[in-house]
C-alpha cells in the first residue's frame, strides 16, 4: 500500500483498475468500530448456531432458565417433604426467580419468531418448549403461593407454630419411634 504526500493521508493505493488506463484507484480508509450495526465483534462468531440475531441470547437465557428451574423444582420437592413455612418461602422465592428467567427466554423466543429467517427444527422445538414452560411455571408459582391466601392450601405464610416447634412447647418425638417416658434419647 502506497501512501501519498509523505505521511498518512487517509488514502490507500488499491493498484491499477481493470480498465487498464493506468490510473490509480483510491479508497478512503475508515477506522472500524468495535460495535457495528450487527452487534459487538466478539459475538459475531455465533452465526454458526443458525437462526437470527436473537438466537444466541435466546439459547443463553433458555439454559439459565433451565438450570434455575431445576433448582426451583428441588426446593419444591423439599417443601413437599418438610411441609413447613420456611421451606414454602424457599420454594416460593426460587420459583419467582425461575419464572422471571423463563419469561425472559419466552420474550426472546417470541422476538426470534418475529424476526423470522431460517431456523432449524431443533430451535423451533426449543422455542415451543419455552413458550409452554412459561405458562406451566406460572401455574407452579401460583400453586406455591396459594398458601399466602389460605392455610387450607398448605402450611401458609402465617403459621404461628414455627417458634414453638409445632407441638406447643413439648419436645418433638422422631417419626417412626415411640417415646419412652423419662428417656431423652
From TrEMBL:
In this chain, composition skew of type Polar residues spans 17-26
Spell out the residue ranges making up region: Disordered: 1-45
Q: Which UniProt keywords apply?
A: Membrane, Transmembrane, Transmembrane helix
Q: Which domain of life does the UniProt lineage start with? A: Eukaryota
Q: What Pfam families does the annotation carry?
A: AWPM-19
| TM stretches of this protein | 56-76, 88-108, 128-149
Q: Does the keyword DNA repair apply?
A: no
What's the protein here called?
Answer: Uncharacterized protein
Q: Which organism is it from?
A: Acer saccharum (Sugar maple)
Amino acid at each position: 500500500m502506497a501512501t501519498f504526500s509523505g505521511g498518512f493521508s487517509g488514502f490507500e493505493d488499491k493498484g491499477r483498475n481493470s480498465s487498464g488506463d493506468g490510473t490509480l484507484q483510491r479508497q478512503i480508509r475508515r477506522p472500524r468500530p468495535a460495535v457495528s450495526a450487527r452487534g459487538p465483534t466478539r459475538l459475531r462468531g455465533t452465526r454458526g448456531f443458525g437462526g437470527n440475531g436473537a438466537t444466541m441470547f435466546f439459547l443463553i437465557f433458555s439454559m439459565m432458565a433451565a438450570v434455575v428451574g431445576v433448582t426451583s423444582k428441588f426446593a419444591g420437592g423439599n417443601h413437599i417433604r418438610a411441609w413447613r413455612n420456611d421451606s414454602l418461602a424457599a420454594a416460593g422465592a426460587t420459583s419467582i426467580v425461575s419464572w422471571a428467567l423463563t419469561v425472559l427466554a419466552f420474550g426472546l423466543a417470541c422476538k426470534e419468531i418475529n424476526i423470522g429467517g431460517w431456523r432449524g427444527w431443533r430451535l423451533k422445538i426449543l422455542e415451543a418448549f419455552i413458550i409452554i414452560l412459561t405458562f406451566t411455571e406460572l401455574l407452579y408459582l401460583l400453586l406455591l403461593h396459594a398458601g399466602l391466601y389460605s392455610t387450607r392450601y398448605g402450611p401458609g405464610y402465617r403459621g404461628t407454630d414455627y417458634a414453638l416447634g409445632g407441638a406447643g412447647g413439648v419436645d418433638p418425638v422422631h417419626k417412626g419411634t415411640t417415646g419412652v417416658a423419662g428417656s431423652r434419647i
